[in-house]
Backbone:
């Protein structure tokens, strides 16, 4: 799988790092894994790093992601820090941020994991 997900006790967050080609099946697998971890550790904070990923996702699919998260039972309030320092992914990451914010989620984008972690801890 092109991702690794683990719980970070320092951040009380699920941290995911994507790498290589990432498609819709990969995103759904990660959503289920991060949901499992968030339930186990009782958190709704996420740090997701797309910098080393090559996102192969449609705009329609990205638009549906918040609804998919609701269906699998993601805890509210959700706080998501997206890390992306890859110009190729920026438009898709920004669109996901907009769609999620329109659903009432607390989500921000950052170019470094350190900045993302600081925001989660604030």
Residues:
């Amino acid at each position: 799988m092109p991702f690794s997900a683990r719980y970070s006790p320092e951040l009380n967050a699920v941290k995911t790092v994507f790498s290589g080609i990432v498609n819709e099946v990969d995103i759904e697998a990660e959503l289920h894994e991060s949901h499992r971890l968030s339930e186990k550790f009782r958190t709704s904070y996420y740090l997701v790093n797309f910098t080393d990923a090559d996102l192969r996702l449609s705009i329609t699919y990205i638009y549906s992601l918040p609804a998919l998260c609701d269906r699998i039972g993601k805890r509210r309030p959700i706080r998501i820090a997206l890390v992306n320092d890859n110009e190729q992914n920026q438009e898709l990451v920004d669109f996901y941020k907009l769609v999620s914010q329109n659903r009432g989620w607390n989500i921000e984008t950052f170019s470094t994991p350190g900045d993302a972690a600081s925001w989660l801890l604030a």
Observations:
- The chain is about 45% helix and 30% strand.
- The chain has a mean pLDDT of 94.
- Residues 3-121 form a domain with the Transcription Regulator spoIIAA fold (CATH 3.30.750.24).
